[in-house]
Design goal:
About 35% of the residues lie in helices and about 40% in strands. A hairpin with a 4-residue loop joins strand 3 and strand 4.
């Protein structure tokens, strides 16, 4: 009976250790803004152009200047991002992107 209880405690400790290590991996590898901009350029061809205090960030998409509107939910284990990209010239909506970021990369979850 005592051996069975010790086995359960040892098994529980192993599972808690594995769970702790997995949580640490997710926390350390939560993607940041630079990861998002690299993903955005790779997937959609939108590259960060410049940043200034008056206009904020501007991007280039197919040779046209665009700006971003949206929000970010950054949790301990993942990042959720919803962004809309508009033309600087005529304020026309060009693209709407919803993503979830985990393990240093982002995944498109649809519009």
């Amino acid at each position: 009976m005592v051996k069975n209880a010790d086995k359960k405690k040892t098994s529980l400790k192993k599972w808690l250790l594995v769970l702790g290590i997995m949580m640490l991996i997710f926390i350390v590898s939560n993607p940041d803004q630079e990861n998002y901009y690299a993903w955005l350029e790779r997937e959609y061809g939108i590259s960060l152009n410049e940043y200034n205090y008056v206009d904020g960030r501007t991007f280039i998409k197919d040779g046209e200047q665009v700006y971003e509107v949206g929000h970010i939910r950054n949790t301990l284990f993942f990042t959720q991002r919803e962004s809309e990209y508009y033309s600087v010239d005529d304020n026309e909506l060009l693209l709407e992107i919803k993503t979830v970021g985990v393990l240093r990369t982002f995944f498109d979850v649809g519009s």
